[in-house]
Amino acid sequence: MSKVLLHLRNVPDEEADGVRAFLDAHRIAWYQTRPGPLGITGGAIWIKHDEDHAQARQLMDGYQQELRERVRADLAQARARGEDESFADMLRDRPAWVLLRVLAILALLALMALPGYLLWR
């Protein structure tokens, strides 16, 4: 029976390509399901044989550790160069964009609190 290795919802293409590549390199049989038409499922990479799942999971853990270290190093370099964007930078560069999102968040919070307010009143 097949087992899921990686759900592909919100996974960048380069990461999914890396997973496919290391599975092929280690000759682990896999297949991929596509996202559902209604957006309920996001697709996944599956390991065909149960006995390969432990090895694939171990490889996946190593791959994610390497990816985590690389992304953190890139972020540290961006911070050292002053290229990372903070909330204050976004507020200064795009005040209307930030203001619209803050107002949308406040409106959603008000809508969520409304039923409780009406029941309590």
UniProtKB/TrEMBL annotation:
Any single Pfam family the record assigns to this protein: DUF6164
Transmembrane segments: 98-120
Membrane found in the keyword field: yes
Source domain of life: Bacteria
Entry keyword Membrane: yes
UniProt entry keywords in alphabetical sequence: Membrane, Transmembrane, Transmembrane helix
Name the UniProt record assigns to this protein: DUF2007 domain-containing protein
Organism of origin: Luteimonas yindakuii
